[in-house]
Each structure stands twice: as structure tokens, then as C-alpha cells.
Amino acid sequence: VDTYFDTVISGDMVEKGKPAPDIFLKAASTIGVQPQNCLVLEDALSGIAAASAAGMKSIMIPDKIEPDESTRQLCLCEKQNLNEVIDVLEKMN
Q1: In what order do the strands lie in the sheet with 57-60?
Q2: H helices of 1-93, where?
Q3: Is 4 exposed, middle or buried (0-12, 13-18, 19+ CB in 10 A)?
Q4: pLDDT along the chain (93 residues), means of 10
Q5: Which of 41, 45, 58, 70 could bridge to 75 as Cys pair (CB 3.0-4.6 Å)?
Q6: For residue 8, is it left (φ>0), alpha (ψ between -120 and 50) or beta?
Q7: CB 44: neighbour CB atoms within 10 A?
Q8: pLDDT computed for residue 75 by the predictor
């Protein structure tokens, strides 16, 4: 992991787990980025809720559980795999 990421924040480093926003807020604070300038890639409904509560944009990449309509409203979009996220990132620049 250290080869690919400068910073890793895990659930045991925060008081409350998802759907609380703690893990995402700690990550943003650690790298010095405002939450509204962060993009979360998430496969869990609780992760999308946490990203939204943190004031972050998110993209849902479902694993086993498909998002419901309320979850879809919280995220920018839903993609089926990480390759599909590339188009979204290119449009954001």
C-alpha cells in the first residue's frame, strides 16, 4: 500500500465508522484538502452516506449491494468499475 499511497486512513484511526463522516474528514485533514474538494470512490451504501455527510462528492461503484434511490441522489453518479471513473475524472478537469 505504501508504494501507491502517501497517506492511508483506516477505520481504527477514527472514533466513529461509516456512515459517520469521520474517516473521510480525517483523510482530507491529513492531506490538507478541504472536504468539498475531495472525491470519494465507494462501493458501500454507508460509504456514500459518509461522503455526503462530510460534504464530499462521491461516485458509487457497487460491489454486492446495488444502491437504492436515496443513495443514488447522494452521489455524482454510479459506475460499474474503476475504468468507467476515468471519463468522469477527465470531465472534471
Answers
A1: 39-42, 57-60, 77-78
A2: 22-31, 45-53, 69-74, 82-92
A3: exposed
A4: 89 97 98 97 97 98 94 96 96 86
A5: 58
A6: beta
A7: 18
A8: 96
> Which grid cell sits at 36?
468539498
Q: Please state, in angstroms and rounded to a whole number, the distance separating the CA atoms of residues 44 and 58.
A: 11
Among 41, 84, 39, smallest CA distance to 60 is for 41
Amino acid letter for position 74: L
Length of the chain: 93
Q: Rounded distance, CA 71 to CA 60, Å?
A: 9
